[in-house]
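Hi F.,

I've been meaning to write this up properly since the lab meeting, where we talked about keeping a consistent format for the predictions we share between groups. The idea is simple: the sequence comes first, exactly as it goes in, then the structure tokens exactly as they come out, then a line or two of notes. No screenshots and no reformatting. I'm using this chain as the first example so we have something concrete to point to.
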Amino acid sequence: MNRIMIIGSGGSGKSTLAQKLSNILDLPVKHLDTYYWNPNWVPKPNDEWDKIVEQFTNEDHWIIDGNYSRTMDMRIKKVDLIIFLDMQRLLCIYRIFKRRIMYHKKTRPDMNVECKEKLDWGFIKWVWNYKRRTRMNTIKKLEQIEENQQVIILKTRSQVIELIERLEKNKHA
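Output, unedited:
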């Protein structure tokens, strides 16, 4: 397990899980938000973004968290394990508001340093509608993975905790 991809709605816990897995498995984390956003929330041009993602996926060891569906296939081709955080809508909404309060006038650790935390209606609507608009496309992509790849779908916080505990136990075994 050298290449892990973590996907899910905003507020599902992707970056937090990525960091925990990095500590357990000693794999470097690539938070896609850190690289996609230029200062002041300006997105990278597609060609530049594609090159960054391709460079990451060509590395031998990584945990990549983030959706960015346009480049998802590129990551899926190289991944050993995909963790899909399929959390409940209200939990994700709660978490994005909590994160906004926690990082008021600050930058999150998984974000470009010049992108102070913000919360706009577009993002709130995206999180609210994730299950209806985005989830099915993600499931379709996961159904097409190769035999040598693994998918874990986690739907609750307790399942995330169980995964972390199992990996920690295996590390010390």
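Notes:
The first strand starts at residue 3 and ends at 8.
The chain has a mean pLDDT of 93.

If this format works for you, I'll send the rest the same way.

G.
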